[in-house]
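Continuing the batch. This is chain 6 of the set; chains 1 through 5 are on the previous pages. Same settings as before, nothing changed between runs. Recording input and output for traceability.
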Amino acid sequence: MKMGTYFTRSQIAMVKEAETLILSDLTTRITAKELAERFGVSESSFKFYVKGILGDSYLNYFRKKRMEKAAELLETTNLKVIEIASAVGYENQGKFAKVFADTYGVSPLEFRRLSK
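Output for chain 6:
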């Protein structure tokens, strides 16, 4: 039987702090490398901790969070899609729309229409 990986309190605290930092301002994109440097660990270690503690890769986890926020904004505001894209860290509306459609199976505008 394979034992689970255990993370130290400081590793868990690091990941939670990184998560708080990213989620507090989704307009700013912070790379795993930048966060690893900030916490004084290697990028590969940082990514390993994130995957182990948050249950998904750094990119997937925060992409999912960005899309959840975008969906919420589509449902609860009248912001334009370009404004929502920007609010969740996408400068390119096309790229945002593609990631959104990959996540939810419909375009941002269709999602908004269906949520009304």
